[in-house]
Amino acid sequence: MGNDTLLQVKDLVVRFRVPGSKYRPTFIRPVNGVTFSMQQGEIVGIVGESGSGKTTLGRTIVRMVSPTSGEIRLRGRDVTRLGRRQLSGYWREVQMMFQDVYASFNPVFTVGQQLRYVVNKHRDQHRQDVDVELDRLLGVTGLTPPDVFRRKLPHELSGGQRQRVALVRALAVMPKLLVADEPVSMLDVSLRADVLNLILNLRDEFGLSYLFITHDLPSARAVCDRILVMYGGRVVEIAFADDLLDQPLHPYTQRLISAADFAEDSGLQTAPPAEDAGQVMAELLESYKGCPFRRKCPLAMDICETVDPAFRAVSPTHSVACHAVDDAVASEARGSLQ
Ligand SMILES: Nc1ncnc2c1ncn2[C@@H]1O[C@H](COP(=O)(O)OP(=O)(O)O)[C@@H](O)[C@H]1O
Ligand SMILES: [Mg+2]
Fold first, then answer.
1. Which residue of 10, 230, 301, 315 has the lowest C-beta tally within 10 Å?
2. pLDDT tens column, 69-102
3. Residue-wise pLDDT tens digits, 100-109
4. Pocket of ligand 1 (CB under 6 A)
């Protein structure tokens, strides 16, 4: 691990009881043995279909959900089991931007009031200094003139403006890491490109790191340094964005990519993910055995039924969890030794 390591997640497991299963409790693991790390200033994408555990992973890293087991470290410090008081300090460094931005605003307070409230909660500062800083952030995110936007109520903003205010609200705390859950999926294509550019500019200006959760691969390609693919609570592949999208190794990643239409400008065809309709992926059940993708996999073998494939590095920057890929890579390695 280099000195610039910001976040380390190791063997992270989150276990939930399925709602309504009180008398015969059934458990799922929407996060099931997740391991990865990220550097300061990096933008790491988490992609995968709806129900694969992306939001739960994000919420757990922000520590709005307590992990069942495993470890989360921020700049080397163990933050897996922080108490209430310590958590408020943690939230100065790690912020989350929610998928449903509109619901996260209070409708009766102005943008300025809500932003000031957040800053005051996290920092001791004079009101005048806070306003100067907020105006600067509003300006940076394109909400000009700032004093006009400060006086607006949430319903007076367009979807794109609301998304920007949500960014300002997260940034006002000056976090090191922003977990952004589907930040552009509610926006149409033209606005989407603007907000993605804004995300890149903010990384450059503030050295901000992002965990960028999305089911939209074109958006992930546009902003992410690396991409992590989730399926059934597991990470199945991690690589640099271009490597992952141009040379996907995992059969699930390959399927995701062939289902996405990269010819489209930035994924207008992708509807926002359906919000949970009470359906649980069978692969998330605690009793599930073997590779999470085996039932849909064209390469499935006997071993996939019983043994969950280990995550293995096929190059220093590309890792995958797949028995079939393991075999191909192993025989290639044997071949090069002869
Ligand atoms: N608090 C909770 N209690 C029980 N089940 C939950 C809870 N939060 C999420 N889940 C379930 O975890 C699974 C993964 O959901 P989620 O993390 O939202 O996936 P994604 O963001 O990839 O769509 C879903 O089946 C969802 O219903
Ligand atoms: Mg989600």
1. 315
2. 999 999 999 999 999 899 999 999 999 998 777 8
3. 778 889 999 9
4. 16, 19, 28, 30, 48, 50-56, 273, 276, 280, 284
Instruction: Give helix 159-171 / helix 189-206 axis angle, nearest 10°.
Output: 20
In this structure, which ligand is nearest to the CA of 30?
1
Query: Residue 265: CB partners within 8 Å, gap ≥ 6?
Result: 189, 193, 218
Task: Give the Cβ contact number of residue 95 at 10 Å.
Answer: 23
For the CA of 57, the nearest atom of ligand 1:
17
